[in-house]
Design brief:
The chain is built from 7 helices and 24 strands. It has 429 residues and is an alpha+beta fold. Among the domains are: 65-102 and 352-425, conserved putative lor/sdh protein from methanococcus maripaludis s2 fold (Beta Barrel); 105-116 and 269-347, Beta Barrel (Elongation Factor Tu (Ef-tu), domain 3), CATH 2.40.30; 153-234, Helix Hairpins.
Length: 429
Amino acid sequence: MKIKTITIILIFLLAIHSYCTREKAREKEPTLNQSGEKSSSNIEAKPLHRRQREGRKGQTGKGGQEPRRFTGAARMSDFIKLSEEEKNALEIETERASWKSIRPQLSAMGKVFSHPLRRAIVSYPFPARISKIHVQIGEWVQEGQILLTLQSEEVGKAKSEFYKASADYELAKVNFERAKRLYDQGAGAKKDYLSSEAQFKVAETNLDAAEKKLHLLGFTEENIREIAHAHEINPSIHLFSPISGKIIENKATLGALVDQNEEILTVMDPSLLCIDAEIYEKDISQVAIGQEVEVTVPAYPEEIFMGKISYIGDILKEETRTATVRTEVKNKDNKLKPGMFANIKIFLKKEKRVLVVPKEAVLDDRDKKIVFLKKEGGFIPRVVEIGASEGNFIEIMSGIEEGEEVVTRGSFQLKSKLYEEVLRRGHVH
């Protein structure tokens, strides 16, 4: 029994000794500093909150000084080493972080809507019946193109009045010219001359009123000349497109009655749209009419639409302390649709010099942004904080230093390999 007890105690002591040996070896595991060199972690252990405070020491603030930099060290386990075959397959490309002058930007969210001067409603101010529909919804039309043919009692009456006024005018004109000729020759009485002149002026006024009534009903000068030549009392009238654009709404039904309260068709020119965004009171002084604006929408996140500020509101909204800023944007390929939400970036006048890298170097990693740095023998991930962007470059506010090489091609493959290594070390299958 005593021998068995002694054996158990010896086994227990050997297990404790083995555990302590492994812990000492783990404490000596090397890490990678920012330069990619190995450094020993055999230092005094400190609580997390003390290490975080010390990591923030030495960061510079505002006043034109260099932006604060990432001071954390990459772990040795995050170091990615590629074989020659992997290097050839990935065709990795890198570029050094450098300082570049870019224009600061002011960001806001807005909503797309049709340009007020490029949208038209087609209706009719008098009761009528739709006798023919010449266009369909979604169809492109030109200014002056026939959209609908209507039949209206008012049109028939107006044409009849125009013909009567035209006949009275012609008769009054002949009588006036005859009376004037006789009076000038001394063969006619002045009374007859003055009477014919008055009748001629009344007939002229009535004809002008009849023409204006036809204009009010929707007839053009050319249409009126055709009516005068045809001498037909036809109750039909054509409705024409007031602008060039696209039929975006069509409520016309063949044979249906319409009146002045009904919007029959809507035509919109989608090539130029507007975006209204709200700018905070503190930023209004930085915005001016004519400034360039970069627009993106969730439907096409990788595509940029360019525009310019056309209007700045004169009233500050009390509830939000914001003013409305309107942007006119060219609708490339007609991809923007009224009603869409849009993110706008207003380019300000003053430039600033910042540290930048190509946009393709920055990857999303959950709620963080990362880049991969090229180090001797491999690559390491680095968390960065980004700022403004212009063209193909994006500002790096913290995380890397000038001259460090970031991966611009092959970074997605490096990220996949990093996750594979993490899963392998965690024995996840």
